[in-house]
Amino acid sequence: MKPLEQLVRISRWRLDEKRQKLTDLERLSERLRADLERLDEGLAKEGEIAAQDESARPAFSNFLEAELARKTRLQKSIEDIDREVEAARDDLADAFRELKKYELAKTSQDERARRRQLRTEQATLDELGTQLHRRRSSDQDNGAS
Are 18 and 87 in contact, with CB atoms under 8 Å apart? Predict the structure, then answer.
C-alpha cells in the first residue's frame, strides 16, 4: 500500500473515531437534559402535593433541598458536556480537514501517475507506428527496386 493511501485510510479511521465520540457526547448531553427536565417535572408535582397536604410540607423541604442539589450537579454536568461537545466538534473539523488534505494529495498523485501511464502508452504507440512506417517504407523501397 502506498504511503498516501495509508494516510487516507488512517485519517478516515480517525475521523470515524471522532464522529463516534461526538455522537456519544451529544447523546449524553441529551440524556442529561432529559434527566433535568424530569427532575423539574418531579419538583413541580411534589410542590403541588406539598401545597395541598400540610403533613407533606416538612418532608418536601428536605426533598426540595436534595433535588435542588441534584439539579445543580446536573446543570454543571450539562455545561461540562457542552464544552466537551464543542471541543469534539473542533477535533472533528480538524480531522476532516486533514483527511481532505490527504485525499487531495492522493488524487493529485493518482492523476500524475495516470498521465505518466498515458504518456508511456502513447510513446509505445508512437514507436510502434514509426516501426510500422519504416517497414512499409522499406518494403516499398525493396519492391520498387
Answer: no
Question: Which of the two residues, 92 and 59, has the higher pLDDT score?
Answer: 92
Residue 136: all three cell numbers together? 512499409
Q: What amino acid occupies position 59?
A: A
Segments forming the whole domain that contains residue 87: 3-110
Residue at 68 is within a domain = yes
For helices 3-52 and 57-144, give the axis angle rounded to 10 degrees: 160
Alpha carbons 25 and 82: distance in angstroms, whole number? 8
26 Cβ partners below 8 Å, 6+ apart? Answer: 85
pTM score = 0.73
